[in-house]
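To: structure subgroup
Subject: Chain for Friday's discussion

All,

I'm putting the inputs and outputs inline so they're searchable in the archive.
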Amino acid sequence: MIRPSFDITALNIEPAEREQSILLLEVSSNFLGCVWYNQPQQKLLGVRHYNFEDTVDKSSRVLMEELLKDDLMLNSHVSKVVMVYHYPESTLVPETYFQSELNRPVLDLLFGDAEKGLVMSEKIDILPVYNVYRIPPDIHKLFQ
């Protein structure tokens, strides 16, 4: 099993505390960051960070899959999971110019078309813009 680069977790976390918490995951091709925060108690339960490097025998995707299967804290129930993808192919498009059918051409224009990843977009709630980004489909499927 892969070991975390750093692991700061509260001692003696009650299952009820963890079940009320929010899990924030930051996913990249070379790391996975995890934060457990109990919002009702305003208490940080843990912070964990894993670094991945593709090896000859295992890709970062395979390492993440093993980690998600073996890490007890990642397998515990939480009230909400928030995912943040940390991949370089991302841009902001003003709401007035946003058209979903242009998402792929915009990313291809800015970053090239060598990557055939999954193109997604999200409206930024506090601004009149959309975040348009491309991620590896196998990573997205793994975290679904």
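Points worth raising on Friday:
The longest strand covers residues 43-51.
The chain has a mean pLDDT of 90.

D.
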